[in-house]
Design brief:
about 120 residues; alpha/beta; Rossmann fold; two-stranded antiparallel sheet; 3 helices; 6 strands; about 30% helix; about 20% strand
Length: about 120
């Protein structure tokens, strides 16, 4: 298959739908950064993905998407380390929507899978 995106960020990437998406985009030649809360599960997922893909294309970073501060800090760190994503897929259970014009209160959580892109200005 043809590579569509150079770099894909995936929250909830250590299992379930997020992990399956990582398998697919890796098979198409993309690099991935997997985000999840549990470092051990992230490490296990990365090891499994690296068995089928080039290790240099699989990166992990812990992040709690229910924490606005963590999302902003870890996203900025990932961009610094790996570059800005071509695509970000939120497959985590919680989501904080952040726009460039306003940030939600800590009570503005949504419980549904969706796509969200958070990039620092």
């Amino acid at each position: 298959m043809r590579k569509t995106w150079d770099l894909v960020y995936i929250t909830g990437g250590s299992s379930g739908i997020g992990y399956a998406i990582a398998q697919q985009v890796l098979s198409e030649g993309s690099a991935v950064v997997l985000f999840a809360r549990d470092q051990q599960r992230l490490s296990q997922a990365a090891a499994q993905l690296c068995s089928a893909a080039d290790e240099a294309r699989v990166h992990t970073m812990t992040m709690d998407v229910a924490s606005q501060d963590d999302v902003l800090r870890r996203t900025a760190e990932a961009i610094r380390l790996y570059g800005a994503p071509d695509l970000l897929i939120n497959s985590a259970g919680w989501l904080i929507l952040i726009t460039s014009s306003s940030c939600p209160s800590k009570s503005s959580h949504r419980r549904s899978p969706s796509i969200c892109l958070v990039l620092p200005q």
